[in-house]
Amino acid sequence: QVHVVESGGGLVQAGGSLRLSCAASGSIFRIDAMGWYRQAPGKQRELVAAVTSSANTNYADSVRGRFTISRDNAKNTVYLQMNSLKPEDTAVYYCRFTTATIPAYEYWGQGTQVTVSS
């Protein structure tokens, strides 16, 4: 069984910062990519940032230059540092882990609310 636990969401004023963390534990092996997604009310879930096992990163255009994704492989943890937050960043943020096993598996966090006030 795999547990994925997120933390770090909350309410912040525009221009502020938050750091999200997400840790996987249990029977999870050969983690490949780690990523963060978000879903705002009435909108589809979208990719925010992702980092591969070789530390290559990918960002949505809307957050590039403001958000930084990082990972700690020893702790099976992925982080998202969010700076210069804007009201349009308000959403539920989800982390996702994928494995390099055959078959591959994906695991999602439960979601953490980020609210940015203007």
The tally of helices reads: 0
Inertia-based shape: globular
Distance between the termini: 41 Å
SSE order, one letter for each helix or strand: EEEEEEEEEEE
| Helix and strand composition category | mainly beta
Radius of gyration: 14 Å
Helix content: under 10%
What's the layout of helices and strands?
Layout: E1 2-7, E2 10-13, E3 18-26, E4 31-39, E5 46-51, E6 57-59, E7 67-72, E8 77-82, E9 91-99, E10 106-108, E11 112-117
Parallel strand pairs: 2-11
Antiparallel strand pairs: 1-3, 3-8, 4-5, 4-9, 5-6, 7-8, 9-10, 9-11
Folded structure, characterized:
It is a single chain. 0% of the residues lie in helices and 57% in strands. The protein has no helices and 11 strands. The strands form 2 sheets. Strands 2, 4, 5, 6, 9, 10 and 11 form a 7-stranded mixed beta sheet that branches. Strands 1-3-8-7 form a 4-stranded antiparallel beta sheet, with no helix packed on it. The relative contact order is 0.32.
Task: Record keyword descriptors for this entry.
118 residues; mainly beta; 7-stranded mixed beta sheet
Q: What's the short version?
A:
The protein has 118 residues and is an all-beta fold. The protein has no helices and eleven strands.
